């Protein structure tokens, strides 16, 4: 049973003002309420109150992982280069990876995620199909050298993560391990009190096939997602894929022949649309990129943006880069700012399905200061490949039912992947199968940002007065505030001890010489769900019980308050 | 309540043979019993069974730290260079420190211990003497790039440590915080079941005044310590200090004049003693060292060794180095292998108290192939400083009572320091004092090697059959072994469930197709304190209950066995 935490002894210094560099709610409030302290960009200390919340989140994660039969282990963070060299991620991670050398000059890294090492572990420990399936997890410190670490513990360079890995011999087994994790994650986030959505996701650098993200909607989130109010479809915007065959042909028989226009000083869609007095959606924007070094043009309506992430996903494993001024130098056929598909015989042309056969466009004429109009797809130019590559916008049709999509910002709090055999192939992870022959293992990988979940909870639950924790993660169940006089402090400590004896986790503000007003403000900032005030009627045994979220309070005898809190 | 752990599902692969590179008991057995797995030199994974033991040790540490009012926090391992630059340890740690750069080229280190950062934390969080005393702790991953990482988890390069720090405004306060930690450490090691000694220690690179070590006697230990069977004195051998005034004068009136001897080919004490047929203890060995670059001679009896650690402690902060061949080159007065104090007018001479005034010696004559005898201290040469600098040996007199000391090897499992104001001075850690003026804070620092404690426990408790854990740290309370038939497995699972429901942590070997012999051997190797065998008399409801340590066993009805185990 935990001890009563006395504010007179607890190391918690609250601040009235937001830290100068803080942008997000969680960053501001976790610092102001004395939960965390910054050591360096993206590197944080968890102070006593913060450590309690972090532990409470970890405990929920641990219970639910144990409940699905996952086994807890602890891997090192300092990892040798070789396995990451083998998987290709020593290079692929680029600057995101913290690399270092030991005293003998050997290369090491600080683990950003542990697929390689878990694969090696299971190769060591599991010999037969009888040893599988196995699910392993750890709650451990991860390192990623983010380009712009910010938002406090929401996106750190050193952070706490629960990562787990499943090992099966069949695709059905993997699907089951994945489903177990998916259900466990739903229970975890529900117990934590996190509003969350499960959305389709792209697998990115992780490799593998199916993957879903758990998103916590919040203005401070760095992810955008869509959901459909009509059918419930939800996806990370990068993963929204409209079928490319949505390109519905138009009738171009009444469109006149292509015509060139003198359009000086119109290198942008905006300037072009203004000069010609046409909507941006009637213009055709052509973005040049390099795909494995070869120049490719991507055509989308002028009012849309190309989503380079989606384009990269479509074309993977090819590498997509933007073209540079040097790339134009050797190509007189490519006139910067005035590219049109009708003049690109030697360039592969990828287009959004909206650039359908028979549609007519205003676009570049492949000459300086010149555009062309009535440029008809299928007549004046051909599309080599239709791909959905535009950035999704609010109101775009749902790929599942066609209704208008809603767009939102969210924090990624979990991600589950069906990796398949990518890492098993790299490390030749086989076990002896039921028929006595080696069988290649198939894997899943599953992550929860434990420290990020604390920040996400703060973002979703805080109000104007401060933090406002859900019961399961709060640093205490009750915050007892002694108004100030010695007798009130005595009574408050007595009440705290009774609540503790009844099994509650209790924080008591027993500070002498601190005004009641400061104590109330601190209690609201710290955000324990229930506040018990031992104040002016303490002598008659009457206290005030306040709900932190609703602000509702009632005066009642201490005995009744204790009974109510421990009910 | 924990779940029943089923061997059929648990990732634990036992080995019959010791790993090739393993030298110590704990290394061999923790690998063979499937507790740990090596990732790189000094870098280890804690597999499911090992993670449980590590958690059990951590839980005991946490409870006892909470009980003395220490507050748990979590600091990062990735730390900026500046605070360690300020304390001087960025340089002092030398190659022991893992250093790295981030993507912007800024210097970081992986924390080997956190005095600097805790000092900064308290400077931030504590303003007034009313905020003190405060004791903070963390159980966290530490990094030290050991020159020879070995012995498995006994001396890793990445390891788990509990480090705590106390902050007081008075020396009495520091003494109290230190005493609280000392008592907590005694309770921790007693609860863990570790045989341990508290010995005086030297503070080393940590700085500060008083310090004591907690040592776990074990053959695999890297520390040597002495204890006195007569008076209970105990110290790390490096910290044994005999009073220098123990140099009791001898009467040299009957000793003849100094005489030179032709002694070809006797550059060592051994060869000299053999040729002259005198005991090594009658010869005087003179070791040349450089102290801050100046050559100094150190004289000790020929049968003793100079303890460079003790010499360094005596002369700190001066830096002590051995002399090189180049150092001799410019000094014709120093004849290598034939140095004698009677010819060292220009060299400072430090001697062991045994080289007392009036004692006569055989020593070098400062000429090649020549020694001198009847060289009398005080007559033929002078001692500038008496210092106790010899390596302690078994039977040396106890500095406290004079009785013969015993010598032993041990593992350092804890270390407590009264740091004083060293770090507070570096970071100007002051708080507002009771008189309204700033008061400089005084600090203590306290460490327990959590992962090392696991290895120390294995070293102390293992027997010929395998690991043999004390109850509080064992990965389970009972290991239920089902002999092999389906009915026996059923009954074993049933027994396991009953034991679990009664609050015990249960491991059950329910593997099908594994022989009873292998299961018994595995159970003994894994080392859970009590083994319940569901075997040949299972059908009649009779099982065998075995004590892992004593090997004693009895047959009894299952109901009685359950009652006995849960008593």
From TrEMBL, chains A, B:
<dbReference type="InterPro" id="IPR004500">
    <property type="entry name" value="Pro-tRNA-synth_IIa_bac-type"/>
</dbReference>
<dbReference type="InterPro" id="IPR045864">
    <property type="entry name" value="aa-tRNA-synth_II/BPL/LPL"/>
</dbReference>
<keyword id="KW-0436">Ligase</keyword>
<dbReference type="InterPro" id="IPR050062">
    <property type="entry name" value="Pro-tRNA_synthetase"/>
</dbReference>
<dbReference type="InterPro" id="IPR007214">
    <property type="entry name" value="YbaK/aa-tRNA-synth-assoc-dom"/>
</dbReference>
<dbReference type="InterPro" id="IPR036754">
    <property type="entry name" value="YbaK/aa-tRNA-synt-asso_dom_sf"/>
</dbReference>
<keyword id="KW-0030">Aminoacyl-tRNA synthetase</keyword>
<comment type="similarity">
    <text>Belongs to the class-II aminoacyl-tRNA synthetase family. ProS type 1 subfamily.</text>
</comment>
<feature type="domain" description="Aminoacyl-transfer RNA synthetases class-II family profile">
    <location>
        <begin position="52"/>
        <end position="470"/>
    </location>
</feature>
<dbReference type="InterPro" id="IPR033730">
    <property type="entry name" value="ProRS_core_prok"/>
</dbReference>
<dbReference type="Pfam" id="PF03129">
    <property type="entry name" value="HGTP_anticodon"/>
</dbReference>
<dbReference type="GO" id="GO:0006433">
    <property type="term" value="P:prolyl-tRNA aminoacylation"/>
</dbReference>
<dbReference type="GO" id="GO:0002161">
    <property type="term" value="F:aminoacyl-tRNA deacylase activity"/>
</dbReference>
<dbReference type="GO" id="GO:0005524">
    <property type="term" value="F:ATP binding"/>
</dbReference>
<comment type="subunit">
    <text>Homodimer.</text>
</comment>
<dbReference type="Pfam" id="PF04073">
    <property type="entry name" value="tRNA_edit"/>
</dbReference>
<keyword id="KW-0547">Nucleotide-binding</keyword>
<comment type="function">
    <text>Catalyzes the attachment of proline to tRNA(Pro) in a two-step reaction: proline is first activated by ATP to form Pro-AMP and then transferred to the acceptor end of tRNA(Pro). As ProRS can inadvertently accommodate and process non-cognate amino acids such as alanine and cysteine, to avoid such errors it has two additional distinct editing activities against alanine. One activity is designated as 'pretransfer' editing and involves the tRNA(Pro)-independent hydrolysis of activated Ala-AMP.</text>
</comment>
<keyword id="KW-0648">Protein biosynthesis</keyword>
<dbReference type="InterPro" id="IPR004154">
    <property type="entry name" value="Anticodon-bd"/>
</dbReference>
<dbReference type="InterPro" id="IPR002314">
    <property type="entry name" value="aa-tRNA-synt_IIb"/>
</dbReference>
<dbReference type="InterPro" id="IPR006195">
    <property type="entry name" value="aa-tRNA-synth_II"/>
</dbReference>
<dbReference type="InterPro" id="IPR023717">
    <property type="entry name" value="Pro-tRNA-Synthase_IIa_type1"/>
</dbReference>
<dbReference type="Pfam" id="PF00587">
    <property type="entry name" value="tRNA-synt_2b"/>
</dbReference>
<dbReference type="InterPro" id="IPR002316">
    <property type="entry name" value="Pro-tRNA-ligase_IIa"/>
</dbReference>
<dbReference type="GO" id="GO:0004827">
    <property type="term" value="F:proline-tRNA ligase activity"/>
</dbReference>
<dbReference type="GO" id="GO:0005829">
    <property type="term" value="C:cytosol"/>
</dbReference>
<dbReference type="InterPro" id="IPR044140">
    <property type="entry name" value="ProRS_anticodon_short"/>
</dbReference>
<keyword id="KW-0067">ATP-binding</keyword>
<dbReference type="InterPro" id="IPR036621">
    <property type="entry name" value="Anticodon-bd_dom_sf"/>
</dbReference>
<protein>
    <recommendedName>
        <fullName>Proline--tRNA ligase</fullName>
        <ecNumber>6.1.1.15</ecNumber>
    </recommendedName>
</protein>
<keyword id="KW-0963">Cytoplasm</keyword>
């Amino acid at each position: 049973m935990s001890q009563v935490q006395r504010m007179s002894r607890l190391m918690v210094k609250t601040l009235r003002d937001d830290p100068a560099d803080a942008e997000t709610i969680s960053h501001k409030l976790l610092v102001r309420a004395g939960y965390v302290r910054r050591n360096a960009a993206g590197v944080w200390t968890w102070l006593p109150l913060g450590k309690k919340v972090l532990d409470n989140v970890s405990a929920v994660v641990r219970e639910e992982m144990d409940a699905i039969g996952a086994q807890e282990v602890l891997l090192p963070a300092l990892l040798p280069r070789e396995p990451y060299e083998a998987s290709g991620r020593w290079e692929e991670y680029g600057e995101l990876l913290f690399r270092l050398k030991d005293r003998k000059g050997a290369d090491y890294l600080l683990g950003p995620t542990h697929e390689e090492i878990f694969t090696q572990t299971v190769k060591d420990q599991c010999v037969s199909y009888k040893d599988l399936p196995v699910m392993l997890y750890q709650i451990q410190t991860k390192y990623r050298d983010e380009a712009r670490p910010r938002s406090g513990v929401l996106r750190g360079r050193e952070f706490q993560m629960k990562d787990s890995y499943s090992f099966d011999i069949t695709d059905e087994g993997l699907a089951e391990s994945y489903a177990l994790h998916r259900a466990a994650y739903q229970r975890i986030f529900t117990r934590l009190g996190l509003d969350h959505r499960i959305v389709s996701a792209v697998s990115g650098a992780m490799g593998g096939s199916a993957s879903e993200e758990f998103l916590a909607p919040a203005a401070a989130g760095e992810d955008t997602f869509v959901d459909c109010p009509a059918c419930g479809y939800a996806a990370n915007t990068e993963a929204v894929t409209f079928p490319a065959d949505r390109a519905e042909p138009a009738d171009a028989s009444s469109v006149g022949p292509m015509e060139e226009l003198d359009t000086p000083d119109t290198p942008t869609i905006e300037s072009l649309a203004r000069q010609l007095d046409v909507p941006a959606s009637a213009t055709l924007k052509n973005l040049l990129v390099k795909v494995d070094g070869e120049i490719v043009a991507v055509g989308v309506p002028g009012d849309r943006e190309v989503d380079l992430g989606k384009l990269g996903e479509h074309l993977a494993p090819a590498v997509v880069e933007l073209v540079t001024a040097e790339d134009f130098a050797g190509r007189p056929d490519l006139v910067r700012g005035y590219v049109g598909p009708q003049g690109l015989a030697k360039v592969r042309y990828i287009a959004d399905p909206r650039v359908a056969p028979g549609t007519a466009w205003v676009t570049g004429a492949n000459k300086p200061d010149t555009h062309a109009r009535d440029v008809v797809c299928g007549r004046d130019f051909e599309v080599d490949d239709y791909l959905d590559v535009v950035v999704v916008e609010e109101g775009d049709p749902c790929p599942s039912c066609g209704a208008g999509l809603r767009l939102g910002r969210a924090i990624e709090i979990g991600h589950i992947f069906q990796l398949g055999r990518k890492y098993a192939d790299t490390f030749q992870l086989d076990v002896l199968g039921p028929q006595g022959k080696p069988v290649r293992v198939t894997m899943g990988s599953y992550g929860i940002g434990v420290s990020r979940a604390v920040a996400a909870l703060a973002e979703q639950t805080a109000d104007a007065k401060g933090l406002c924790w859900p019961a399961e993660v709060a640093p205490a169940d009750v915050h007892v505030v002694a108004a100030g006089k010695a007798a009130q402090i005595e009574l408050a400590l007595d009440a705290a001890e009774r609540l503790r004896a009844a099994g509650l986790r209790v924080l008591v503000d027993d500070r002498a010489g601190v005004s009641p007003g400061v104590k109330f403000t601190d209690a609201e900032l710290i955000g324990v769900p229930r506040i018990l005030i031992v104040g002016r009627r303490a002598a008659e045994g009457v206290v005030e019980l306040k709900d932190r979220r609703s602000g509702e309070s009632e005066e009642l005898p201490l005995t009744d308050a204790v009974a109510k809190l421990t009910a």
